[in-house]
Design a protein that fits this description.
mainly alpha; globular
Length: 208
């Protein structure tokens, strides 16, 4: 429940990032990103925070390059100012949770399926790949979610596939920023999906 509570804020974190990329001066984007990121961290300062930071970092990094080429360095500065203000809002909301966690992280127990690690200890390689999909099981992310019973299940389902099909169908009708977002987020999603197969595609070696 704690993990679910955290991840329910992730779509709004994504939306906040998109607003900052789309608009030069967006008070709504700053507030949305900062508030949702803060509430996500407040719910659980664990996997959800790591994934939100990773997604935001990749999207903002790729977006800054795209904006630099399209609109120049001034627009990139505006993007990073917006991100900085969002981080301040997020810390103001989640500081009561994040600061104690940071201070006590050396003695924190992290469960890894079978066993645990303490603080900053590295997850053993065999535990890191304890549960992974085989390429033949990928079809089940669409049809049979009960066979994909792993932590962070990559189940997509027919509605997710329908959304991807619609994006591909209407891709040419999107504006330039829309096409950039579709390609970048599609690449992130595909990488995350293939990462579920662990060593079978070799991505475990990169992620580890």
């Amino acid at each position: 429940i704690t993990i679910f509570a955290s991840y329910t804020w992730l779509p709004l974190v994504v939306a906040g990032n998109i607003l900052l990329l789309r608009h030069e001066r967006t008070f709504a984007g700053i507030v949305l990103l900062g508030t949702s990121a803060g509430l996500l961290a407040l719910a659980s300062s664990s996997q959800g925070v790591a994934h939100a930071v990773l997604f935001s970092g990749i999207l903002s990094g790729a977006g800054s390059i795209w904006l630099w080429k399209r609109e120049g360095p001034k627009r990139v500065v505006q993007l990073f100012v917006g991100l900085l203000l969002s981080m301040i809002i997020a810390f103001g909301i989640a500081g009561v949770s994040v600061v104690p966690m940071y201070l006590g992280i050396d003695g924190m127990i992290r469960h890894i399926g079978e066993g645990y690690v303490l603080g900053h200890q590295r997850i053993p390689w065999d535990k890191f790949n304890l549960v992974q999909l085989t390429p033949g099981q990928l079809i089940n992310i669409l049809l049979n979610p009960r066979t994909v019973e792993i932590v962070g299940s990559p189940y997509v389902g027919p509605l997710g596939v329908a959304g991807v099909v619609l994006v591909i169908y209407y891709f040419r009708q999107l504006d330039s920023i829309g096409r950039f977002l579709a390609v970048t987020m599609g690449a992130i999603g595909l990488y995350a999906l293939l990462s579920a197969c662990g060593t079978h595609f070799g991505l475990s070696y990169i992620n580890y």
